[in-house]
Every structure is written in structure tokens, then in C-alpha cells.
TrEMBL record:
It comes from marine metagenome. Gene3D superfamilies: Type II secretion system, protein E, N-terminal domain (3.30.300.160). This is Type II secretion system protein GspE N-terminal domain-containing protein. The lineage of its organism: unclassified sequences, metagenomes, ecological metagenomes. Pfam families: MshEN (PF05157). Signal peptide: none annotated. Residues 65-146 form the Type II secretion system protein GspE N-terminal domain. InterPro entries: T2SS_E_N_sf (IPR037257), T2SS_GspE_N (IPR007831).
Amino acid sequence: MAVTAAQSALSGLPERLVADSIVSVADVKQAIEDTRKAKEPLVSYLVENGMAEPRAIAVAASHEFGVPLLDLDAIEIDLDTLRAVDQNLLTKHRVIPLVKRGQRLFLGVSDPTNLQAVDDIKFQTSLRIEPVVVEEDKLQERIGKALEAVDTTMSSFDDEDFDLENLDIGATEDEEDVGITKD
């Protein structure tokens, strides 16, 4: 396929989306301009405005950046894995923790160029972050469900579970028997 002058001005994911006939050159250029003004991720903009299919964008991103692709419908995310990342970071960066293995956290992203998300979550968790491309629409749905699940588990605690007024912080019997001596 011959590269046109308009395409040569593009690079990375936008260039791939045009080359794969997912989005027109004019649409992707307009989307880039709009997302810069709104400070919104390109992938989110394209999906929310119906300019491209989420699956097609995810496949293109996976191929362009050599990042694995995962269908979020194929896995169940553990609640402890969800709690590993601050909820504010999930919504701010539009990401979701998928699986924690040892010191690695696999992170679902729709835009693998979002290095700020990887850095922020790496800093917060002290884990090595491995991005995995997922579809934007499924990602947003899963983030919403994840936040509900975390909120539900936290709201299941009663005030009695946190009753600090009746907390006994006195010495235990073992501590009372230990004498302090000066040498």
C-alpha cells in the first residue's frame, strides 16, 4: 500500500489506524486536534464518537506496539488485584489491573502509549507493570463494575467493625509479666 503525503504526517497508532482503513486521514487528524484541546485519550475519543470499532482499534494498537491483546470477557478479575491500585488512578488513566503474578501486575489499557498510567501505578504499587491491550468499551464497563465491587465490599462493614471507642489497648498478660531491668 502506497503511503500518501497526508498519512506520512501521522505516526504511531493514528498512522496504523489509517493504514488499516479503520479511520480516515481527515477523521484521525480532527480527532487528534480535538483530543489535544480536551486532553482526552485518542482511543477513548474515537470510540465515544463512533469513529471506529473498539475491537479494531485494540487489534491495531496491539500490532503497532507489540503489546498482547486480551478480551476482557474472557477473564474474571480478583477483588484483591483490583484493590492493589488506587481507585482514583483507575478512573484517571482509564486502566484496570488484570492479574498480579509475583512482582508483576498486568494492566489492561486501551492505549498502550499512556506511559504516565504505567509510571503512576508502578510508583503506587511498587510492582513491575505489564500493559495488555483491551477494548475501550469493555474497559470502561469493567472499570465501572470494579469500582462498584470495591465500594460494595467496603460498605459491607458496619460501624461496629470500626468501633474504636471500645478498643482495649491495655497491656496483655504476657506484657505485664515482663520486667524492665537496668544494668
